[in-house]
Each structure stands twice: as C-alpha cells, then as structure tokens.
C-alpha cells in the first residue's frame, strides 16, 4: 500500500481527484545526439547556453603563484600544449554531449600502461588531444573506495579499439547525474533539461516575427463577391480590377473604389492593424525563463543593458561571476589536477607540490582602480619594510612577483632579470 503525505484541500480540490496537477509525471526521455547537435548548430540560444560558461571560465585564465621565472616556464608549457584552447573545446563538448576527454600523450608505446609523473622529464608531454564522447568509451566505474580511481572509469577505449589507462585521460562531465544513474561514465548534456525552455523562448520570438507581415491589412468589402467568383471570367475580372487598384495605391498613394464607401451597393475600404504592445514583454519573459534555467543573467546571455528604473545589472553580473568562480574551484580545478602535476614536471623538470595558482577574476579593474590598489599595496610593503616584520629578501621577492603579475609597468618582469630556477 502506498501512503502519500501531501497538502490537500477538499474545498478547492487541491491535492484531490479534482486537482489536474496530480496527474503530472516526470518521464526521462534522453535527447538523441543528432538532436543536440542540430540544436547547437541551428539555434542561437542553445549555442550561447553551451558556449558562454566555458568561455567565461577560461577567458581570464589563471596566474601561477610563483616567482616570475617559474611562472613563465609553466606558462610556456601551457602555450606549447595549447592547453587553454584544448580545454575550452573539451568543456564545450562536455556541456553539449554530456562528456568529453583530454588525452595526455607522452610518447609511450603502450597507452594502456599507467603514466607515472615521476618518470616525466622537462618537455616530456607531447600533445593534448580533445576526444568527444563519441570517440572514447569509458569502462566500468571503480567502486573500491581504497582505489585512487574511485568513482572514475577503470579504463577507456578510444576509436580503433586502443585501450587507454585512466592516468592518461582528463574526464570532463556535462550535467551531473545521480550516482545510481551513471552507467557509461559520463553525464547529461546541459541541453537535456534546458532545451524545452530554449525552444519556447525562440518559438515566442519566431511567432512574433511571423505576425509582422500581418501587422497592417487592407480589407475591402465587395457587394456580390461570391457571384463574381462563381465564374472564371468574373474571378479574372475581379482579380485584374484589384490588382490595378493596388498598383494605383502603390504608385500614387490612392485607392479607387466604386461608391462612397457607405452605400450598401458600393465597395467599402477598411484598414486593420494588430496591437503589439504586450508582445515584447511576453518574449522577454520566455528569455528570462531560459536564462534562469541556464544560470546565466539575461544581460550576459543577450548582451544587453539592464532595463528599468535605477537598474544597473551589477548585482546580477556579480552573482554570475561568483557562480563561475565557484565552478572553476569546485569543478574545473579538481578535474585537471592530474594534468597540472604533469604540467609542472613538463615545465620545470621536477615536482613541486607547493606550487599553486589562482583563477584571475572575471571583473577586471579599470586603470584608476588598479592604480589605487597598487598604491595601497605599495604602502603596505613600505610599512612592512620599516617595521622589519618580514625578512627583506622574502619581501623583495613578494614585491617582485606582485609587480610582474600586476602588469602595472610593462617590461618590469624582464628588467628584474632573475635567472631561471
């Protein structure tokens, strides 16, 4: 016997047999890849929903918290491997198809064997390849909590049947699934839950656009119209008569009609016009629903200024930037942690567990704001130097790193001239 604990009201019918909402039932219908690809290629809103978040996550990139020479070596490895470009493409594919992968290549003859970071020397990484979900198959999920691969696929198989060890793969997911629903090692497309709202928003705009040609219609009442149309000669004569009238109106701005427009036996002319006053609000409502479903502010999704009295949109953009920063730290940083350990050895030829990086903020300060921040930091450094609470060498290295990373004075990093290492 099933017991239901819910709110019911016998007077209004809420929760009872008269409540139509009691028949609602959620049924999962997976979107086919062909449908997802078609939506991404043909629907501008679906494409922006997929592309915007990965682009914003990577557009300011990251800054290594290290001396300039070490940071430059790591940046050079990132550039040589085109890490930023490869990661952007993989994140977009992951959001579109539910998953994608980066294949790490070190030149090993058998990629089915583990990639040991300690065996990788400087410049040891050969390539990073982006593999869409359709070109890499994930094996069974590791359920042993003592395994370092717990919760990840035990192995992978790429097109052609080549087995690949998970240490050589960076797995990126789209929309997360409940644990019990994970069957193939990947997630859902972000469009799986959003496509209905996206279709409604674009359909609303399309319906309004379809009404534009009907915005103004000329209506002419013709006595005995059905009799004229009952014969071919009458139809042809009537067609020719009003085609000529339309030409007269187009050429001279006047319409010739029989009668005075009031007598029953005369033709009567009317012009009807549609009222579009409420339609823009309807279109905006559907766009707002789609933007809310995608966790992207309307101002960012549509690239428009906020509307309304005293509206600046600053709070929306600030919340969105906080959302993107959280995804960088909670999702992206752990996903590429294995690759970053390899990248450090590729750039420096050695491991350095103390190395850290920070994602640069999305909101960039103006020149005036940067100058003000620089003044405050300079005053703080001067105060620390006077008080002697920080060793002079350590403070000097810190100020050098700050000036090099802040880009307040172009070329200052090269002017310090510290040797590599």
From TrEMBL:
UniProt cross-references to Pfam families, sorted A to Z: Phage_portal_3
Entries under InterPro entries matching the protein: Acb1-like_N, Phage-assoc_HI1409
Residues of the Anti-CBASS protein Acb1-like N-terminal domain: 35-381
Protein name per UniProt: DUF1073 domain-containing protein
Source organism: Methylobacterium terricola
